[in-house]
User: Fold this.
Amino acid sequence: MIGETQSLKIYSREKIKIENQEAGKTLLQIANENDVQIDQACGGNGVCTTCMVKVKSGMENLNEMTEKEEMMGLDPENPEVRLGCQCSINGGECDVEIAF
Ligand code: FES
Assistant:
């Protein structure tokens, strides 16, 4: 799926929409490339939780929760809360809120 153009929207605190992103990119990569502010104290290594986001819709279009996310205390049974640096888009639409 990497390289395919997908319809993706990220809602920052200012509710900026970002569309037509490549599948396989993480939410943090997409935010960085589009000047959307998202905290990233560990530089995207999955060890700080400052990039935490809330998935509003399109959860089925994201990768499964990673081992790093589980190690940081995120609950696979509650997959609407993800780490932006570990969460990638597989395809289709997705709405994510940078809520923390
Ligand atoms: S940037 Fe640190 S966990 Fe994502």
About this structure: The mean pLDDT is 83. Residues 5-97 form a domain with the Ubiquitin-like (UB roll) fold (CATH 3.10.20.30). The chain has one domain: 5-97.
